[in-house]
Amino acid sequence: MKIAELRAKTEDQLKGQIVELKKERFNLRFQKATGQLESTARVREIRRTIAQINTLLTERAVVAQGKA
C-alpha cells in the first residue's frame, strides 16, 4: 500500500488496518511453520506496512501535541 493512501485514512481506519495486518501476519507465520507458505515476500510487505502505519500515527500524535 502506498503511503499516500495511508495518509488519506483516518486514525481509526489505520488502527483497524493494523489489526487486520497483524492477523494476516499471524496466519502467515503458521503457514511458514507447516511449510504451506507460498509468498514469502508477503511477510515482508506486511511488516513494512505495519511499520509505516505506526510511523504515521506517531507523526499525527506529535503534530496534535504541538498544536495543543
TrEMBL record:
Gene Ontology terms: cellular component: cytosolic large ribosomal subunit
Any one biological process term the GO annotation gives: translation
Name by which UniProt lists this protein: Large ribosomal subunit protein uL29
PANTHER family: 60S RIBOSOMAL PROTEIN L35/50S RIBOSOMAL PROTEIN L29 (PTHR10916), LARGE RIBOSOMAL SUBUNIT PROTEIN UL29C (PTHR10916:SF0)
Organism: Govanella unica
Any Pfam family hit: Ribosomal_L29
MF-aspect GO terms: structural constituent of ribosome
InterPro entries the UniProt entry points to: Ribosomal_protein_uL29, Ribosomal_uL29, Ribosomal_uL29_CS, Ribosomal_uL29_sf
Source taxon at top rank: Bacteria
